[in-house]
């Protein structure tokens, strides 16, 4: 038992140190290219500072980092296994009667925990950085240093309040004034019954959403069978808040893992499709298993008793080619799931399941040799 504890600590330390080495190296490369792109976009702009360009590059970086983490893990595992094979440590481990799966078990556990940390802690940070990048990009395009989000595309949102009451909220233009306040122009709030018949309609020239209340200005209230009522001010309470409106303008990738279940529930109650959000949520849930699959793939290519000369290079090239092929195929399957051609759970889990099945069978065969 003591031998396995020492072995587990040793190989996990090797894997984690290589992971962070590769991670920060790739992070530096991504930041360099993002900085070049940011400088290109702000060149010739007197209203944009160098600090803004730096924020733009750093906030953009997290959009790429989440994509490359599986490949970072695979490269780190390849380096770890190559060193063990090069120094004949793997030969000694196998000679001690340790099977391949016994050797990989602590590494798989450490990789799985790393994936959980990525989902629970890094993903919320990446989501906030994603939103911040969208804000900076909007400010850059609209020459408005104080803008928070949104454009003149307007708003159209549906909210299911009760079994017999549905709200349709529309605004021609809107602008976020603060973290919890939105200003809108030409606002319409329509109440529908279960038969999709209009029961009441509010038309306002201006409105402010503060918390969960629409403060309407210059309002006309139209009710079936009643005269039109005109009011200067009217407070309309709703469950919609700034977060729900923001989610109409951002991608599911900008919503953190912790917020996705509430977002999915809100969209489904409102009658909208939450397919993209479901796929994002399920892909995050399965991402630790994907990391373990990439570890097993690296083991297939690099765990050999003897690796010399050109054989190493060919295995590295082949493993990288297979990794990118899997990524390309996973994006194709993901697109099928997004468009509803295959079930969501299948689109999300199929690539990871294929990796597990293939690598497990190859490792079992290698263990018997």
Contiguous uncertain segments of 5+ residues = none
Spatial order of strands in the largest sheet? 1-2-3-4-5-6
Number of helices: 9
Shape: elongated
Give structural notes.
With 369 residues, the protein is an alpha+beta fold. It folds into two domains: 2-144 and 275-368, no CATH class; 155-244, no CATH class. Helix content is 61%, strand content 18%. The chain is built from nine helices and six strands; from the N terminus they run ααααββββββααααα. The chain has helices spanning 2-42, 50-86, 89-95, 100-142, 242-246, 260-270, 275-302, 310-338, 344-368; strands at residues 155-162, 165-178, 181-192, 198-210, 213-223, 229-237. It has a six-stranded antiparallel sheet. The longest helix is centred in the N-terminal third of the chain and has 43 residues, at 100-142. The radius of gyration is 27 Å and the shape is elongated. The mean pLDDT is 79.
Give me some keywords for this one:
6 strands; 369 residues; alpha+beta; 2 domains
Structure described in brief:
It contains nine helices and six strands; from the N terminus they run H-H-H-H-E-E-E-E-E-E-H-H-H-H-H.
